[in-house]
Amino acid sequence: MGRSHPLDNSVHSALTGPHTHFARRRGNALRYPSDVSPFMALPDSPDDADWADIAALAGPGRGVLLTGLTVEPPDGWEIVTRGAVLQLVDDGIAAAPDEEAVPLTQADVPEMLALAERTKPGPFLPRTIEMGTYLGIRHDGRLVAMAGERLRPPGWTEVSGVCTDADWRGQGLGTRLVLAVAAGIRKRGETPFLHVVASNTNAVRLYESLGFRLHRASTLVLTRPPAEVPISPGSTPRPTVRDGRRSSTG
Question: How far apart, in whole angstroms, are the C-alpha atoms of residue 215 and residue 218?
């Protein structure tokens, strides 16, 4: 039986949908390139071979970052971190363009990386900007706030990377950018959604006040496989596929 909603396994939905051009695949296991996003994905009911494949995709000694998965990792896998996250969806937000919000480009990536490093909005890597549109607000030429698009399950786009420099907080810049990014998502006929750490009650209240509503609670898990990952009897090693090309390495 297929899953009931594309957001229930949103990373998998994105990598088998609009973001398929990013997908690194080994069997049924998927991941983004390591300089785009750290997220990986498994099917809804992974078997031993799927877990072995995602361990190979991660590489020796590397962690596997999963969200939305409702099953526990196999015996022997270490849980490095586990956290509760909430998935909120557009339920009538006042999305609107913002005249101060400017599209950010590859030329802006060094400033975006620096802003993300200072403010810690979540993973932002050298090629994260390729996942979707990013908008920023500048003052005196300096990038002081940004927000953009991350996961894209069919029909949906995640608002992410929302951050404001400490010197400019309390002025509503992040809210304005969320609404501007959401306006662009709606303009192409998709629905905005976002993830927020469940313990960040202030952010939850803010997003709910903007018109987002809870879709589901989920878990973000960073897990690390054992040095030797067993494969079910009869299974054979599967090649990694990058951009439609096979590779002998994970």
Answer: 10
Kindly report, residue by residue over 135-180, the tens digit of the pLDDT.
999 999 999 999 999 999 999 999 999 999 999 999 999 999 999 9
The residues near 122 (Cβ < 8 Å, ≥ 6 apart) are 160, 161
DSSP 141: T
Backbone angles phi, psi at 21, to 5 degrees: -70, -15
Domain positions in the chain: 10-85+220-247, 88-215
Q: pLDDT tens digits for 59-97? A: 988 999 999 877 789 999 999 999 999 999 999 999 999
Fold held by 88-215: Aminopeptidase (3.40.630)
Local confidence band at 250 (pLDDT 50, 70, 90 cut-offs): very low
d(CA 95, CA 29): 35
Q: If DSSP codes are grouped into helix, strand and coil, which group holds residue 39? A: strand
Residue pair 17/190 in contact (Cβ under 8 Å)? The answer is no
Q: Burial level of 233, CB count in 10 A (0-12/13-18/19+)?
A: exposed
Q: Please name the amino acid found at residue 52.
A: A
Residue 15: what are its φ and ψ, rounded to 5°?
A: -75, -15
Q: What is the spatial distance between Cα 180 and Cα 186, in angstroms, rounded to a whole number?
A: 10
Residue 180 near residue 135, CB atoms below 8 Å: yes
